[in-house]
Design brief:
By secondary structure, this protein is of the alpha/beta class. The protein contains nine helices and 20 strands.
Length: about 500
């Protein structure tokens, strides 16, 4: 059912910092729809399974099919295609692509509102100049990596034959923990930053962009007995990676409680895209399941773009009598930033930020319908390829490129079930209400709906903000050999 609750009245003036809620904004990398116990996974996730009973679950929430595009929306409240950030391959090492400097990030906004802003984990939103990195885009502190992935232990990333180190503390390459598991450092540094902020009596904004459970499939320092029976081996290791992540989320929650700030904290957990399946042994294959949804990361099918998202918090921000409920309003990753600001008492500044996203806070708290009936899932190549839109129940996918692969991956036993044969695969129309798992392409029998949705796509392409993906090629000045072996900024 669609839930409702009444928001407790808070005085949130920036001059009364004790009443400003702390905000914990958490992204889980490549979390599949069925990588959590509460969606039927065989991965042990007791912390998340308990947390969902204390949360609002966004049950019709959409993300982009891959990392950087979604993260650009999470960070700005804008659609990726309105910033040139809708890259098919995400931002590659050595790219000059970045969030435009004239679009404010949530960290910059929070800093203006009197928050101390901290980030740990994965950035992947541009690093060619220090101006594009976390420290340049509003964060007071940063521990993590600038690109899309690193080894969990040696902190390097390969781009073909080019290898570079990518682990930073603010603007300095950090070699002090090389060889240890990265999650340990994220936990240590986030705790130190949070304790310092709380001691200063300031409100905190912590963006915790977890590395887990993205590839590489590296065995974590501790493994779970409950993963022993999971197969194949790659999926067993992914299970252990998810188990370690689940425990870390529990430790972060406990830290907020130990510091006495949980009751005044708003928490958001989201994935950046669907889980990457074991569609091949080679890069970028993983071992997630999005069952019963179709396909996964990099595809425009539901398994690639329907995301896990929870909103929760302490009793001063999130009343206990309306927990353990589902919100069925259609939502997009771009909606989280305006929703956060509204929930935190900053709705007065939302109009000036000119978001593409919309706040769902009033709909959530007052049991109203969603403020949106349409999600432009992905728009690129002027809407002619790798493009998708959902309007009410109808979803259109346009173009030959649907993603890297297709099919369904079950949970236990973990196996692939081929997708239905479809000779009309350049135009696909699904009724998500009648066919949520996209078995039946009805484009041929409903040409009028296809035409209407193509016109809706065209309206976005003709919008004043639309831009094709920004340059995402390798810049020769980015070579790690020129930067002491690191993937470091290379432009002024």
């Amino acid at each position: 059912m669609i839930m409702m609750f009444t928001l407790l009245t808070l005085s949130l003036s920036t001059t009364v910092v004790s009443n400003q809620p702390h905000i914990l904004y958490m992204v889980v990398d490549d979390l599949g729809w069925t990588d959590v116990g509460f969606h039927g996974s065989n991965f042990p996730t007791p912390v998340l399974d308990k947390l969902v009973t204390e949360s609002v679950e966004m049950s019709k929430y959409y993300v982009q099919p891959s990392c950087s595009p979604t993260r650009s929306s999470l960070m700005t409240g804008r659609y990726p295609f309105n910033m040139g950030m809708q890259h098919l391959t995400t931002i590659i090492p050595g790219s000059t692509a970045h969030i435009p400097l004239d679009v404010k990030t949530i960290a910059e906004v929070m800093k203006e509102q009197g928050y101390e802003t901290h980030m740990v984990g994965k950035w992947h939103l541009g690093y060619a100049s220090w101006k594009y990195t976390p420290i340049g885009r509003g964060f007071d502190t940063f521990t993590g990596y600038l690109g899309g992935m690193i080894d969990y232990y040696n902190r390097t990333m390969n781009a073909g034959d080019i290898v570079g180190y990518d682990f930073w503390h603010n603007t300095a390459a950090d070699y002090t923990h090389d060889g240890s598991y990265t999650l340990t450092d994220y936990m240590t540094d986030s705790e130190a930053a949070l304790r310092k902020t709380v001691a200063a009596g300031k409100p905190s904004f912590l963006y915790f962009a977890h590395q887990n459970i993205h590839i590489p499939i590296d065995v974590p320092p501790t493994t779970s007995p409950k993963c022993e029976s999971v197969s194949p081996d790659r999926r067993k290791t992914l299970c252990d990676m998810m188990s370690v992540l689940d425990s870390a989320i529990g430790e972060t929650l406990q830290l907020y409680k130990d510091l006495g700030i949980w009751n005044n904290t708003l928490m958001i957990i989201t994935t950046d895209n669907g889980g990457m399946t074991y569609y091949q042994d080679a890069f970028p294959g993983s071992a997630s399941s999005n069952w019963p949804l179709r396909a996964g990361k990099t595809t425009l099918f539901e398994g690639g773009v329907k995301g896990v998202c929870l909103l929760t918090g302490g009793d001063n921000v999130f009343p206990s009598n309306i927990r353990n409920l589902k919100y069925f309003g259609m939502a997009h990753a771009a909606d989280l930033m305006p929703t956060i600001l509204t929930a935190a008492g900053m709705s007065d500044i939302v109009p000036s930020l000119e978001f593409d996203g919309v706040s769902h806070w009033e709909s959530i708290t007052k049991n109203l319908t969603s403020p949106r009936s349409e999600v432009p899932v992905n728009i690129v190549y002027s809407g002619l390829n790798y493009t998708s839109i959902i309007n009410n129940d109808m979803k259109l996918i346009v173009g030959k490129v649907q993603g890297a692969y297709d099919g369904y991956w079950t949970v236990s036993p973990y196996k692939e079930i081929p997708a239905p044969f479809d000779p009309h695969n350049t135009t696909r129309l699904f009724n998500l209400s009648a066919d949520p798992n996209e078995y039946h392409n009805i484009a041929e029998s409903h040409p009028e709906i296809v035409e209407f949705l193509k016109q809706r796509i065209e309206s976005y392409v003709k919008g004043k903000r639309y831009s094709e993906p920004s340059d995402n090629g390798f810049h020769p000045a980015a070579a790690p050999r020129l930067h002491n072996g690191t993937w470091a900024p290379f432009l002024p």
